[in-house]
């Protein structure tokens, strides 16, 4: 893998990112910033954040295959790589069936998209694939630098590493709430998990593969499920939960600070200290 992500990164929706925030995140010692959601294919935000920083990596989590043509994503990749070599990772994926009316045969769509990225000379080491289930995880190892799983647990990370084998990137996302009151933390985390993810069959199927029951995923998610998917507590407790992913085989884990609408920097500062990033 040519893009150095470091051990810990930050995942945040595109609307909550800016060049100024990127510079602050870099100063705290995080290794990468993941642009969440489905950013526009021109990837201007990634370019602006790279321009405002010196060494931090920027990745997309993810460019949606249904809304951005592979050729557009490739053109953006080559433009950014030429200006900031070794600092940009093109994360791609298919999103979820419920969001796209034309959604058909997702695995075939992924293969076709990767074929088109090949034709456009986007290198394997410059791209990653959103992956949850075994088949797409295996494909990510064959056709990209590796996998970027979303809404997962360290238990999923452990199983994913078995499928990927050694030497393949595994970079899961994990939601965090810095609050030592469990009820308050769940009240923040549950709505983000419930809508949309507990209504989407690919995420629910993945949770059931991990052993969660119908009751766990119903009615907004059981407390146990929310606690598994949203790390909460003081900074040391959250840092320990993130590190469980690394212990389970991840190369990199990116934290999504909740609530999404708040300034993430206070929490990221506390977390950076607990993670001993500097």
TrEMBL record:
Name the domain of life this protein comes from.
Answer: Bacteria
Protein keywords: Oxidoreductase
SUPFAM superfamilies given in the database record: Bacterial luciferase-like
Single GO MF annotation: oxidoreductase activity
Q: Which Gene3D superfamilies match?
A: Luciferase-like domain
Q: Where is the Luciferase-like domain?
A: 20-116
| Enzyme Commission number(s) from the entry | 1.-.-.-
**Entries under PANTHER family matching the protein:** CONSERVED PROTEIN, LUCIFERASE-LIKE MONOOXYGENASE
Q: Write the protein's name.
A: LLM class F420-dependent oxidoreductase
